[in-house]
Write a structure and sequence with these properties.
elongated; single chain; mainly alpha; about 0% strand; 6 helices
Length: about 160
């Protein structure tokens, strides 16, 4: 059974002068923003799927059922198409995280973060201009790839800067 480890040296070990420069601030901001993207999307997609205008345009069967029946918090929308819309980002992010680890190891942090940005830009363009469900889901998949790449890489970026 392992026990606690105690040391006699209580002085903190700091490599460098420990100043917060503009560069360190920007790098920490990038790192924090990468972590916020996942939580932000959870809030946005939850709010959007409750909007009547959104349901009427992309999920008319769900909208009609919502008007006819009493809502239940356990199973509010019983639609595989709506579930595909919601889960496509998360599944793409999970796959992209593994792919991003390989890309980051082979090409480095900056190209991986640039790829995440390009995925985000493509996903935002497709979801903002979506006229049908396949376009919306492809945009969500691109957003998921961006989230996966960013979540894999921005943490490494922040850790690297803090250790500098």
């Amino acid at each position: 059974m392992a026990g606690p480890v105690f040391t006699l040296d209580s002085s903190p070990k700091i490599d460098g002068d420990g100043r917060i420069t503009f560069y360190v601030f920007i790098c920490a901001l990038i790192s924090a923003t990468g972590g916020l993207m996942f939580g932000y999307d959870i809030g946005i997609s939850g709010g959007v799927t409750a909007m009547d205008d959104f349901l009427e345009k992309f999920f008319p069967a769900v909208y009609a059922r919502k008007l006819r029946t009493h809502e239940n918090n356990y199973c509010k929308f019983n639609s595989q198409r709506l579930q595909a819309f919601t889960s496509s980002l998360y599944l793409a992010a999970m796959v992209a995280t593994f792919l991003a680890a390989w890309v980051c190891k082979k090409y480095g942090r900056r190209p991986t973060m640039r790829a995440a940005s390009l995925f985000f830009l493509g996903g935002v363009a497709l979801t903002a201009g979506a006229v049908n469900l396949p376009m919306l889901i492809i945009g969500r998949i691109l957003l998921g790839l961006g989230v996966g790449f960013a979540n894999q890489d921005t943490k490494l970026f922040g850790r690297f800067v803090i250790k500098m």
